[in-house]
Design goal:
Helix content: 25-40%
Radius of gyration: 14 Å
Strand order of the largest sheet: 1-2
Strand content: 5-15%
Shape: globular
Largest sheet: 2 strands, parallel
Distance between the termini: 25 Å
Number of helices: 6
Order of helices and strands: HEHHEHEEHH
Length: 128
DNA sequence: AGCCTGACTTTGT
DNA sequence: GACAAAGCCAGGC
């Protein structure tokens, strides 16, 4: 499918995990999510894939759960599942409204023109 | 340490 | 196209 992206050259993530601070895989997720351009969306799988595919898409969703408590705002509303459905809406009801502000049309919890608005970090961010 | 859960994805029936 | 099952790995208890 068009959405899938078996990128394998992303092992060398540019995210420094060292430093004195505690590093979490969550931080990577937040960072990627924040890179999502306004008016565009991506999927959990795409993010997981970008972070190294070793991870699973569930972790991204799990990270989003904590994202609500993240200090910098994380546009979790721009992250949906592979079908373009607002699966996160159940935990983040305001996302539909936020999407509307970005001119993203949603019908029955599904993003209209999802494939067109899809933003794949592994592709768009040009990994090295 | 061990078991359960989860904002997912893919594959098979 | 709808439903079921398995794989995924980090956190919470």
């Amino acid at each position: 499918m068009a959405i899938r992206n078996n990128n394998k050259a992303n092992k060398n993530a540019e995210q420094p995990r060292s430093l004195t601070k505690q590093y979490s895989f969550f931080d990577d997720v937040y960072e990627v999510v924040r890179q999502i351009p306004k008016g565009r969306v991506t999927s959990y799988g795409a993010i997981a894939n970008y972070l190294g595919k070793k991870l699973s898409a569930r972790m991204v969703g799990w990270a989003m759960n904590a994202a609500g408590s993240a200090k910098p705002k994380v546009p979790a509303h721009r992250v949906v599942n592979s079908k373009g459905i607002l699966s996160a809406k159940a935990h983040f009801p305001s996302m539909e409204k936020l999407l509307a502000k970005e001119k993203i049309k949603v019908e029955k919890d599904k993003i209209i023109g999802f494939e067109n608005l899809f933003w794949d970090p592994a592709k768009e961010l040009t990994i090295e």
